[in-house]
Amino acid sequence: MLATSLRIAIKALGRHKLRTALTMLGMMIGVAAVITMIALGNGAKETVSEDVQSAGTNLVKVSAGNYSRGGIELGLQEGRGAADTLTVDDALAIGKIAGVEHSAPEVRLRGWVANGEKSDQRTYTQILGTLGYYPEMHAWPRMQEGDFFTQDDVEGGAPVAVLATVTSERVFGRGVNPIGKEVVIKDQRFRVVGLAGTTDADEIEMAFVPYTTLQKALKMTNIHQITVAAVRAGEATRIAAEITPLLRERHGLDSGRQGKGTATFGLQGPGAYSATVPDDFTVKTQAAEALTKGLYTSVAAFVLANMPKVDQANLDEMAGTLSRAGSTMTALLATTAAIALIVGGIGIMNIMLVSVTERTREIGIRRSVGAKKRHVLLQFLVEAVTLGLLGGAVGIVLGFVASAVVTQFLEWPTRVSPGAVLLAFGIAGAVGVFFGFYPARRASQLDPIDALRYE
Fold first, then answer.
1. Using 50, 70 and 90 to split pLDDT, how confident is the model at 29?
2. What is the largest CA-CA distance in the chain?
3. How far apart are the C-alpha atoms of 116 and 183, rounded to whole Å?
4. Pick from 75, 92, 67: which is nearest to 246 by CA?
5. For position 113, what pLDDT does the model report?
6. Which end of the chain has fewer beta carbons closer than 10 Å to its terminal beta carbon, N or C?
């Protein structure tokens, strides 16, 4: 019976192709809106979630050397001063700690960056040798021009450079695209491959090159710093605590250790490592560094002792903000999608009522030859559901296209999940049932004699 009703429904809808298409249009737009908005919601939620998890407090800085001036009165060791014991192998070892996403060896140089053609156009600035995923670690929004150098460039020690905005303006002039031009750093020519999109005050005057290339230029095998990126911001404190004993063991500093504890962000105090041989490195989380910037050692130690898990506190606060924003976004999207689907459903109800009126004599004939009320009800209900499902299927395709267009031209992240597709298709069928039931019931309630007399 259902299969027969479906064949009759398709034939009936095919008699008025334009009217059927216009009726489906409302459902198509409604379902496409649902797919697109869910995709936007998923994309936005994932992006914000990633930013919350990684931005702001997920970095740990491991620097060569250790000196904490003014800590003697608190029982803090002053450290060993400068050191050249930090190596690339140390970075690889840190990268194996659970929860570490990236562990980047870095070499720093304060020097001249000069125009390759006009040596008098130059600037004295910070040159950072790093890895190819530096922008990802520091959550750069984009590159202004070109691309950051690749891991292949790092492994091959390629003479390529990425300039920050201010550096480029000082070397080549304001408004000049530096891509493809050459700069001279440490008497070596570098080809500019990218213009950084960072707006960070500490980065806009820098130049970035592969750390291997800078090592060769400086004739050194050690590194100056390791930047560690945690997968989750709340993990930074734990990772910093695990780095200290790992590097002490690797650098052979454990032989004179008197007690075991956790060194806090490079400050060697009571409850931390009480060692005959102090660290030859400094470990600081990004949150701790921000809190103690410019503070005297004794004050910094007091701040850190009273806020030992500031990164976790920040993560909890940001997670709460994300949850509230997600709830608001979900309510907004649900309301908009519901309005679009109601409009599509009203279109189906309207056309089905017209169809019942037009086919009154047909209903009378069917009833007179033995069709029951439920058969007529099923017939028109199947037609309404078919309209809804066909419109929903086309709407899903339009939703995918709309999501791709939004991502391509507006650069908004979108993600269409299989669950969203099934939900949209199910809603299309449900709308067909809900808005088609009244016209179908009205058709089934027609008196056969009156229906036969209808002109």
1. confident
2. 109
3. 4
4. 92
5. 94
6. C
In this prediction, what percent of the chain has a pLDDT beyond 70?
A: 73
Q: Would you say 424 and 35 are in contact if contact means Cβ atoms under 8 Å apart?
A: yes
Tokens 């409302």 -> residue: 26
More confident residue, 210 or 67: 210
Q: Residue 177: which pLDDT band, with cuts at 50, 70 and 90? A: very high
Task: Give me the amino acid identity at 259.
Answer: G
Query: How far is residue 171's CA from residue 129's CA, in Å, rounded to a whole number?
Result: 19
Exposed/middle/buried for residue 134 (C-beta within 10 Å: 0-12, 13-18, 19+): buried
By the 10 Å C-beta count (0-12 exposed, 13-18 middle, 19+ buried), 179 is classed as middle
- 235-255: b (≥16 Cβ within 10 Å) or e: bbbbbbbbbbbebbebbebee
In this prediction, residue 333 has a pLDDT band, given cuts at 50, 70 and 90, of low
Report how far apart, in Å, the C-alpha atoms of 5 and of each of 2, 28, 377 are: 5, 23, 10
- For residue 122, is pLDDT > 70? yes
Give the Cβ contact number of residue 444 at 10 Å: 21
Query: Is-contact 227 86, C-beta < 8 A?
Result: no
Instruction: Give residue-wise pLDDT tens across range 59-114.
Output: 888 988 876 554 444 444 555 567 788 999 999 999 999 989 889 999 999 999 99
Whole-angstrom Cα distance, residue 227 to residue 199? 19
Bin 176: left if φ > 0, else alpha if -120 < ψ < 50, else beta. beta
With vertex at residue 224, the alpha carbon angle to CA 219 and CA 225, rounded to the nearest 5 degrees, is 145
